[in-house]
Design goal:
Chain B: This is Dihydrolipoyl dehydrogenase 1. The complex is a heterodimer of chains A (479) and B (585). Chain A has 479 residues and is of the alpha+beta class. Chain A contains nine helices and 16 strands. Classes of the chains: A alpha+beta (479), B alpha/beta (585).
């Protein structure tokens, strides 16, 4: 407890006036790469508060991302007004994020031609909040641009406050009771509303199961397909208010003897993903692959703990290195998202559910490490201890039903990924070789489903060609 | 509680010398104020022990709320001046005007204000009685600050234990923190009981007569209590306090629509509770309820949450206390109608726009807590007998707490302190006002500087303030033509706060650069409520920044946050200490 000396290590107190947060929180927040909002890769070397995009001589001022968790920001105040001449490095606007208020500087000289988002209003990260013109002459043009941007702005306002017709018909009894109070509206608890926003879930797509049909945080998490966070009030006090039993959904009449079992969280997530997949235009390409060499290799490495899954994942990863577009994904329908890592998700059936543990950087790990990693993941999946990044970071999925004797099938593309490979069983087949000789070889059919917005037929075909070459000459897998 | 054993000894020795009288002896002890001095004195001077207790009680309550009273003693001295109603009437003169009084001072209301006044009165040698129609301790001890601190102590720990991130950062592992509602409720109730007993005993021990019954002023210097007991006193202090204010249209059933009175009993923890009002009562309860697993919706009539706090502090507090928690809010709305849950229907709250009065929304929640402030309690006080008319319910007083009658004249020998006068509705303010009144009636003029009274909100982390907010200071500066400067420091720069992994916080000093006067200090951060006193004492004593900046703070402590503020303040060179270097005018 020798804490008497005032000269002991004191944190340097950084209460310097240069920090531009208006609340003067001394530790500067990390500036997340704001440049990622800029479609023009040219500015990628510029970091910090430079938020403008070169676009002729009229530039938009964007809502910057001031923290990793910021999704929208509120304009606290415009330091400059319309018509003010700005010089590089000057503070223009104060933005309030979920963490702090910060001054945002201009990176360019120019004239603040128009303010698109006025003080006190919010805009999502990346949205234009003001227009900067380089010269006086361009101000009018910039204003026109602002007018069009402004027209789009209201759409970004929170929708939660607009009354929406109830999605699920409430219990008939309740309708009668509450009839005088006007149309029923959807009620969501405060935390549920936060989660709706956070996970970008439309309130209308959630069915409330809470008391009085309200939407609870659990409902939102279910709808968002994530595991419900553990209850915050663990040994919750005996509630004085009797909770009405969850009302059974008054759906189509049930056949006698049938029962209704609600989805588990995992099943709900699967259901949600499957519905979402319908919005993606997919196509399928199949390919036969001779596996004798692979089988031989497998026999060799099996004693070292290598599994067929690891072999196939490694082969797919190596092929993806050569065909990066198949590893890409299309997030917004407008662009390619090129993934820096090759993360192979492998579908695993797990009693009553389905999960896709991810072998991260499958191209970089060697076969043995990959096998070991896989073993750990399966173990975790069984004990339900997979962390989110261990099941949702995949960039390409592998699904293998060969062990059941399935010779071919096609898979549904999971949201957020570009392609999924369905692997059938390897079966002895009579094949004729190039010289016309017949022989019996083990043949396996693989079938890849891909998002045609970004991956075209030839991409997939050449990828499969590469994949088959790797599998038919598998020595490279052990390198 | 290390003192209690010593004090039971003390009680025995003191009873052995029952003739000690006159609290003037107390002066000997004034210089030693720490509680350890009690223990030191025991062996040699048993005679002084009583005063030791007195001293601690008298001052324990004055400036800094009630945390200290938990240390108070269990001195049980026989009360020597037991009052008997019949004897008193005999002492009245024939024409109804008392020639000699039963008491020097009568205080109506035994809350914290009355208690503080009573102890100080005894110290000043006044024969004192206190009238209480309900329970000793008043709102603070029974239905306010004290039990709420018990709940907040629980919520603070729950919050910490539930914050996996926080625990992990400290290297701790805690699994599934849970709570038992009844246990929590009992803790709050037991604390209130303990403090109430301490208060009662401390007054009895000093010989303050506690008269039970509702007090009514019959005329100048004459009070009735209970049904027909009449007593007279040279001076009278009204300290009747306040009750929760419930706006009209709101039906309080005590179960699903409640006030702080009910909430403190913690009879149930609703899944979703609406809190009407986002002042410090609402904020503290939101801290309790969210820690216990409830979701909270704030309803605030003003455009911003936490009105009354310095805007910058309010903003940061909102980021820490509201946004990341399971709380949402409606601002700029009035709750015009709140119907308790019944017949299987939830609590419904009708909201209208505060400005346009248009209906805005209807909320359906499990419970609603009305925290819209407090209304003075002056029912049955007999103000009409002395021609006093309340203003919005408050008893009008001048800056010396002297009651003003309907004609604008002072009512002689009548004072009003605490929530009933509405000057500053804080328990310790009431107590300070009471002490100020006692000073006056014992011949020393005293005007309390309300700007030196600190206030605190015991959320996690806490908020505290003293003096002016920044907008208030700027407005005053504008009017009086001086300059205002502001310095701020973050708890992130404080070693102790970082050691506790509680770097979230801000302290802010508003001052005059021309003379170094402290205008206001606002703190949001770990233990802010305890930290504010350095600033409030400086304001009360008129200490200037250029002097206090040389005071040494132990390292590493949270109080260095204030040290940092004082050192960061830029006082102009010519400003000097007016006391040590008088300037010729």
């Amino acid at each position: 407890m020798a804490t008497l000396s005032p000269f002991l290590s004191k944190t340097p107190l950084s209460n310097t006036p240069t920090i531009s947060f208006s609340s003067s929180i001394s530790t500067p927040l990390k500036w997340k790469s704001i440049t990622s909002f800029s479609p023009s890769g040219s500015s990628s070397s510029r970091s910090r508060r430079r938020i403008f995009i070169v676009q002729s001589k009229i530039r938009e001022i964007f809502m910057p991302a001031l923290s990793s968790t910021m999704t929208e920001g509120k304009i606290v105040s415009w330091i400059k007004s319309e018509g003010d001449v700005l010089s590089k490095g000057e503070s223009v606007v104060v933005v309030e994020s979920d963490k702090a208020d910060m001054d945002v500087e201009t990176f360019y000289d120019g004239i603040l031609a128009a303010i698109v988002v006025p003080e006190g209003e919010s805009a999502p990260v990346g949205a234009a909040i003001g227009i900067l013109a380089e010269t006086e002459a361009e101000v009018a043009q910039a204003k026109a641009k602002a007018a069009s941007a402004g027209a789009a702005a209201p759409a970004s306002h929170p929708v939660t406050s607009t009354p929406v017709p109830a999605v699920s018909p409430p219990e008939p009894k309740k309708v009668a009771e509450s009839a005088p109070s006007g149309p029923r509206k959807t009620v969501a608890t405060p935390y549920a509303k936060k989660l709706l926003k956070q996970h970008k879930v439309d309130i209308n797509s959630v069915v409330g199961t809470g008391p009085f049909g309200r939407i609870t945080p659990e409902d939102v998490e279910k709808a968002a397909g994530i595991a419900p966070s553990k209850s915050v009030a663990p040994s919750a006090a005996p509630a004085a208010l009797p909770k009405p039993a969850p009302a059974a959904a008054p759906a189509a009449p049930l056949l006698p003897g049938s029962t209704v079992v609600p989805f588990t969280t995992m099943q709900a997530a699967v259901s949600k993903n499957m519905i979402e997949s319908l919005s993606v235009p997919t196509f399928r390409v199949g390919y036969p692959i001779i596996t004798d060499a692979l089988d031989a290799l497998y026999e060799k490495v099996k004693p070292k703990g290598v599994t067929m899954t690891a072999l196939l994942a490694k082969a797919a990863a190596m092929a993806l290195v050569q065909h990066p577009v198949v590893n890409a994904s299309c997030k917004d329908g407008k662009s390619f998202t090129n993934n820096a890592n090759i993360n192979i998700a492998v579908a695993v059936a797990i009693n009553g559910g389905l999960i896709t543990p991810v072998l991260q950087d499958a191209d970089k790990l060697d076969l043995y490490l990959l096998s070991q990693k896989w073993k750990e993941l399966v173990e975790k999946a069984r004990s339900k201890q997979l962390q989110p990044h261990e099941y949702n970071s995949g960039t390409f999925t592998l699904s293998n039903l060969g062990m059941f004797g399935v010779d071919r099938f096609d898979a549904i593309l999971p949201p957020g990924q570009g392609a999924i490979m369905a692997v059938g069983a390897s079966k002895p087949t009579v094949v004729a070789d190039a010289d016309g000789f017949f022989g019996v070889k083990s043949k396996m059919l693989v079938n890849v489903t891909a998002d045609h917005r970004i991956i075209y037929g030839a991409d997939l075909a050449t990828f499969l060609q590469t994949f088959s070459k790797i599998v038919e000459n598998p020595e490279s897998l052990t390198l | 509680m290390h003192c209690s054993a010593a004090f039971s000894q003390a009680a025995t020795s003191a009873t052995a010398v029952p003739t000690i009288s006159g609290s003037r002896h107390v002066g000997a002890l004034h210089s030693s104020s720490s509680s350890s001095s009690c223990t030191l004195l025991i062996p040699s001077k048993p005679i002084n022990l009583r005063f030791c207790g007195l001293r601690r009680e008298a001052f324990g309550f004055s400036p800094s709320a009630f945390t200290r009273c938990s240390n108070s003693q269990r001195v049980r001295l026989p009360s020597r001046r037991r009052f008997k109603g019949s004897n008193v009437s005999a002492s009245l003169g024939d024409n109804g005007i008392p020639k000699s009084f039963d008491y020097d001072l009568i205080i109506i209301g035994a809350g914290v204000g009355g208690h503080g006044a009573a102890l100080h009165a005894v110290e000043k040698g006044l024969k004192t009685a206190i009238i209480e129609g309900d329970v000793v301790g008043g709102t603070c001890v029974n239905r306010g600050c004290v039990p709420s601190k018990a709940l907040l102590a629980v919520s603070g720990r729950m919050r910490e234990l539930q914050s996996e991130h926080h625990m992990k950062a400290l290297g701790l592992q805690v699994h599934a923190a849970g709570y038992d509602r009844q246990g929590v409720a009992d803790h709050a109730n037991n604390l209130a009981t303990k403090i109430r007993n301490n208060l009662t005993n401390s007054m009895k021990a000093l010989g303050v007569d506690i008269l039970t019954g509702v007090g009514t002023i019959l005329g100048p210097q004459k009070v009735k209590f209970g049904t027909d007991n009449i007593v007279t006193a040279k001076d009278i202090i009204i300290a009747t306090g306040s009750v929760p204010f419930v706006p009209k249209g709101i039906e309080v059933d005590g179960k699903t629509v409640i006030t702080s009175d009910h909430a403190l009993k913690l009879e149930f923890v609703p899944d979703w509770i609406a809190i009407v009002g986002s002042g410090y009562i609402g904020l503290e309860f939101s801290d309790v309820y969210t820690a216990l697993g409830s979701e909270v919706t704030f309803i605030e009539a003003l455009d911003q949450l936490m009105p009354g706090f310095d805007p910058e502090i309010g903003k940061l507090a909102q980021r820490v206390l509201i946004n990341p928690r399971k709380i949402d809010y409606h601002t700029g709305v009035f709750a015009t109608k709140i119907t308790p849950a019944k017949d299987g229907k939830p609590v419904t709250i009708e909201l209208i726009d505060a400005k346009t009065k248009e209906p805005k929304d209807t909320l359906e929640v499990d419970a609603a807590l009305i925290a819209t402030g407090r209304a003075p309690f002056t029912n049955g006080l007999g103000l009409e007998n002395i021609n006093v008319v309340t203003q919005r319910g408050f008893v009008p007083v001048d800056e010396r707490m002297r009651v003003i009658d309907a004609n604008g004249n002072l009512v002689p020998h009548l004072y009003c302190i605490g929530d009933a006068n509405g000057k500053m509705m804080l328990a310790h303010a009431a107590s300070a006002q009471g002490i100020s009144v006692v000073e006056q009636v014992t011949g020393r003029d005293h005007v309390l500087n309300h700007l030196s009274i600190p206030a605190a909100c015991f959320t996690h982390p806490e908020i505290s303030m003293v003096g002016l907010t920044e907008p208030q200071a700027r407005e005053k500066a504008e009017k009086e033509g001086f300059e205002v400067s502001v310095v701020k420091t973050s708890f992130k720069a404080n070693t102790k706060a970082l050691a506790e992994n509680e770097g979230e916080g801000l302290a802010k000093l508003i001052y005059r650069p021309d003379n170094g006067e402290i205008l206001g200090v606002h703190i949001f951060g770990l233990h802010a409520a305890d930290l504010i006193h350095e600033a409030s004492n400086a304001i009360a004593l008129g200490t200037r920044i250029q002097d206090i900046k040389f005071a040494v703070h132990a390292h590493p402590t949270l109080s260095e946050v204030l040290d940092e503020l004082f050192k960061a303040a830029k006082v102009k060179d010519h400003a000097s200490n007016p006391v040590s270097e008088p300037v010729a005018v």
